[in-house]
User: Which sequence fits this backbone?
């Protein structure tokens, strides 16, 4: 067996280092790490036109998680208003039918109404994420954050339901265009 010397270690290391550098993408070697891509902007009128389905889980404090199922059919009126008819099924609860009306008031900002909401529904696209905020007739504040998936055919909806600043329930849902 031959002895390992410092010179032979150096010679072996040079080709490995050269190979490692050659395998690095040019952007990493020259410009540093590549920033993650920003999510695509969320256009609720485009996304919710037609049929969508949502499958999720409702987690209420002091209760077991419950499955949620939502079917929505949206159409755009001649004046540009989105009308979204929804059927919401939460396991163990009565089926709820509701209607959303959303109108764009400025780029990325929407306002409207929702069956069962007290006051207006406010929606705004911030950094590609659609923020929807409203209060129901019982005083619970609903805060939804919808993030469009690559390709635009589905979105992740994270909703928090609060009262007196305390989160009483959350919903995590995937909404898919059909």
Assistant:
């Amino acid at each position: 067996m031959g002895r390992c010397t410092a010179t032979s270690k150096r010679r072996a290391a040079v080709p490995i280092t050269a190979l490692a550098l050659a395998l690095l993408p040019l952007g990493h070697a020259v410009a540093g790490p590549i920033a993650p891509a920003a999510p695509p902007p969320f256009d609720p009128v485009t996304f919710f036109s037609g049929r969508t389905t949502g499958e999720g889980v409702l987690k209420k404090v002091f209760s077991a998680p419950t499955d949620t199922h939502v079917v929505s059919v949206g159409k755009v009126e001649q004046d540009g208003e989105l009308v979204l008819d929804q059927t919401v099924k939460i396991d163990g609860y009565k089926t709820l039918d509701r209607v959303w009306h959303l109108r764009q008031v400025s780029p990325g900002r929407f306002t409207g109404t929702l069956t069962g909401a007290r006051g207006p529904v406010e929606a705004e696209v911030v950094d590609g994420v659609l923020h929807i905020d409203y209060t129901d007739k019982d005083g619970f504040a609903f805060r939804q954050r919808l993030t469009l998936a690559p390709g635009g055919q589905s979105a992740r909806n994270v909703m928090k339901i609060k009262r007196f600043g305390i989160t009483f329930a959350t919903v995590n849902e995937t909404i898919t265009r059909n």
